[in-house]
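Support request, please re-run this one:
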Amino acid sequence: MARSYVKEARRKVGPRRARIRPIIERLAAFHADAGIALTFRNDLELLVSVMLSAQTTDVNVNRVTERLFEKYRRPEDYLAVPPEELERDIFQTGFFRQKAKSLRGTMTILLEEFDGEVPERFEDLLRLPGVARKTANVVSAERGHAQGIVVDTHVRRLSQRLGLTKEEDPVKIERDLMKIVPRADWARFPHLLIWHGRRICDARRPLCEECVIHELCPSSRVD
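Re-run finished. Output below.
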């Protein structure tokens, strides 16, 4: 059964709607450099990087794409080599066979339906092989028109600790966050939680005494 911080949050630090803006403002000041860690130069490289990032680290993806993007510059390039060659080129990202299949399927659709360009519409992104809601959210947000809020492991953990949701399912967590996070902050909010989760709010040993939002957090260990 999911552990809920919501009642405790209301008792200890106030309702979530009253806390969300100061949470965002303080995290934005503390993590002024927060942003996507993937390296890319255009929309196609963004899409490929996010697709490859499943079940691996951004550091690992960047290490692979540094070489990959010199070899594969257009959708046609991903289809011009045998599947086994593409698999070898992305091997280090893990799940390389499925990812290679998804990449080739995506490039085919881009060429056949979108003139080789990454589509703008969220619904069209979701039609691409290997692109689920999280990937589409990342791509849309980085292009300047966020359609939702990215929920990864850090966003899930911190949202629960902060009493912003009692849900466990990423889709339901996103729904809760979209109700209280101002739309103008949908793109940067996940980055703020991700960077805070990496730097301060560790899963096992959160540094509450160094946290700029500890008095807004029902899970804080600071009195």
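The mean pLDDT is 95. The two ends are 28 Å apart (CA to CA).
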